[in-house]
Amino acid sequence: MYVQHLSLTDFRSYSQLDVALEPGVTVFVGPNGVGKTNIVEAIGYLGSLSSHRVSTDKPLIAFDAERALVRGRLVRGAQATSVELEINGDRGNRARINRANPVRARDAAGILRTVLFAPEDLALVKGDPSNRRRFLDDLMVQLVPHHAGIRADYERVLKQRNALLKSLRGGRLSTAHQATLEVWDQHLATVGSQLLHARLAVLTRLLPHVQKAYRELTDGTKVANAAYRSSLIGPLPDDDGESAPTAEDLSTLSVDEITERFLAAIAEQRRRETERGISLVGPHRDEVELMLGRALVKGYASHGETWSMALALRLGSYYLLNDDDQTPGSSPVLILDDVFAELDADRRERLASVVAGAEQVLVTAAVGDDVPSALDGRQFSVVPGGFREIPA
């Protein structure tokens, strides 16, 4: 799979940009601030419907513009597909597929598969649990696009339930309030169990690929591992500083069995939730613990080990997506956004040698010399508002 053409309108710093791309390696070179990351961010957005740099869409829209447009012509084997995403900020985004009538943006999920490496990936290891939850959810949607609806439904139900809990905070629960809250309990448990079940399935499939990637990126003396910690079992460390629960494998349970656990956990936390005015149980409170051997990476690993784990998560995602669809021409587009400047020479070479064989690799770098020779390909010099190809 590769992006053959990209067109941007009022996206970030570009009022208009058109760039023709090819399979193989393409490198965008330019100093910080000229817009090279904006180009690959747009391609990543086509794949994931989200940015790797910001959590909301509004910053993607150019100043004084009402909307941004990202258009891509994608080639998968012998089939070409055009996708246009209209980013509206505060209003719902829309998509056009092969120039048909507009549909919901999430209906375009899964058409383009991308794996994006960026300096922000350190937050996958060192940052808050929300970074690791989002990583799993993004991968989940790429694997099964219809899960985008489950993710959106959970966020909507959680927001409404939290609003109700906030309005009840500190007061006594009347019979009517109790009945209303129980309705939202059921909604949260139903959709939350589907989300949790999907996450557990993705992590089970992903872990062997992450372990393989970590071996390739290091000397192989340590084994990468991961464990899912669910708030359905007990309070997690970010819940008032209480200790983590004993690990329990929920991946063997059905969605209905998880729903029963979910409702029981909500009932147990009822008093605390109404006192604090917030939902304390559910996938939005969960954690993915990353380990080397039996030691947590966060807080114990060296800087180099932390980077290797972050890279292994992304590279493992690439391997999983390849394994999921082995049809010729279905390999995800690899994007490496200013990563090599952050790595030592050994990790640069190891990463480059592993990804060089992908169908399409898009690289950004402030200095061309930061890009290993294994990723030799077309080079563009990016300047404010545009670019020019550097002769070979």
Structure, explained:
- The strands form three sheets. A six-stranded antiparallel beta sheet has the order 2-1-4-5-6-7, covered by helices on one side. It has a six-stranded mixed beta sheet with strand order 8-12-13-3-14-15.
- The model is unreliable at 238-247 (pLDDT under 50).
- The chain is globular, with a radius of gyration of 22 Å.
- The protein has helices at 36-48, 122-126, 129-143, 147-168, 175-217, 255-268, 270-276, 303-324, 345-355, and strands spanning 2-11, 14-20, 24-29, 68-76, 79-87, 94-97, 103-104, 114-117, 224-229, 287-292, 295-296, 333-337, 360-365, 378-383, 386-390.
- It is an alpha/beta fold.
SSE arrangement:
Elements: E1 2-11, E2 14-20, E3 24-29, H1 36-48, E4 68-76, E5 79-87, E6 94-97, E7 103-104, E8 114-117, H2 122-126, H3 129-143, H4 147-168, H5 175-217, E9 224-229, H6 255-268, H7 270-276, E10 287-292, E11 295-296, H8 303-324, E12 333-337, H9 345-355, E13 360-365, E14 378-383, E15 386-390
Parallel strand pairs: 3-13, 3-14, 8-12, 12-13
Antiparallel strand pairs: 1-2, 1-4, 4-5, 5-6, 6-7, 9-10, 10-11, 14-15
Helix pairs in contact: 3-5, 4-5, 5-6, 5-8
Q: What percent strand?
A: 15-25%
Largest sheet: 6 strands, antiparallel
Secondary-structure element series: EEEHEEEEEHHHHEHHEEHEHEEE
Q: Name the helicity range.
A: 25-40%
The separation of the N and C termini measures 24 Å
The unreliable regions are: 238-247
Can you count the helices?
9
Strand order of the largest sheet: 2-1-4-5-6-7
Mean pLDDT: 91
Number of strands: 15
Class by helix and strand content?
Answer: alpha/beta
Q: Shape, please?
A: globular
Radius of gyration: 22 Å
